[in-house]
């Protein structure tokens, strides 16, 4: 009795999902943009002279609570993202999650939402305060204008980090009901 070969079928391998790769890219963009935000805030300084002739130094933490808030929110976001990047990379490489527990998916779901909301609040506070402070600066040619311009740059990068975090949050929402 001869063995016959199975019939040939036109079978195509299923295309791999790009969701894990997009999620990893979003987390890396979040990490990088929040790191840039922190660097800009820490290196941005200006010496300002008052009307009385007194000089003082502007930094992110000495006079404006909004910039302190933006720095601390960026710190929370970068720490959380640094914790999530290895898990996202594992998901890209192995095509499955490290932990498939319902409890851990819930934690990721809620933490993604929390961090995204914090970053969004930091974005709003940074853009609002910087715009208002620039508007009421008396000397438009002073070093304080450069200081506020640099804070606009920091606010733009925290906005980019918030968008990356939003994308990651959407993917964690999709994974939550299905357990993927």
UniProtKB/TrEMBL annotation:
Keyword Transmembrane listed: yes
Subcellular location: Cell membrane
Record bears the keyword Membrane: yes
Membrane-topology descriptor: Multi-pass membrane protein
Pfam families in the record: CASP_dom
Main location: membrane
Domain Casparian strip membrane protein, first and last residues per copy: 18-138
TM regions (residue ranges): 21-41, 69-94, 114-130, 150-176
InterPro entries reported for this sequence: CASP_dom (IPR006702)
Gene Ontology CC entries for this record: plasma membrane
Keywords: Cell membrane, Membrane, Transmembrane, Transmembrane helix
Family: Belongs to the Casparian strip membrane proteins (CASP) family.
Subunit structure: Homodimer and heterodimers.
Name the UniProt record assigns to this protein: CASP-like protein
Organism ancestry: Eukaryota, Viridiplantae, Streptophyta, Embryophyta, Tracheophyta
Gene this protein is translated from: LOC113718428
């Amino acid at each position: 009795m001869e063995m016959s070969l199975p019939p040939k079928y036109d079978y195509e391998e299923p295309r791999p999902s790009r969701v894990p790769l997009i999620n990893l890219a979003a987390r890396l963009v979040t990490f990088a943009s929040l790191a840039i935000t922190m660097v800009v805030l820490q290196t941005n300084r200006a010496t300002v002279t008052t009307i009385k002739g007194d000089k003082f130094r502007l930094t992110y933490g000495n006079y404006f609570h909004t910039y302190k808030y933006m720095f601390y929110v960026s710190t929370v976001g970068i720490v959380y993202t640094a914790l999530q990047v290895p898990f996202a990379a594992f998901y890209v490489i192995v095509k499955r999650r490290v932990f498939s527990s319902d409890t851990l998916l819930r934690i990721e779901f809620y933490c993604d939402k929390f961090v995204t909301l914090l970053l969004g609040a930091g974005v709003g506070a940074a853009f609002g305060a910087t715009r208002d402070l620039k508007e009421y600066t008396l000397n438009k040619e002073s070093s304080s204008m450069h200081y506020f311009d640099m804070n606009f740059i920091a606010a733009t990068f925290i906005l980019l980090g918030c968008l990356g975090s939003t994308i990651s949050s959407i993917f964690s929402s999709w994974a939550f009901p299905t357990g993927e």
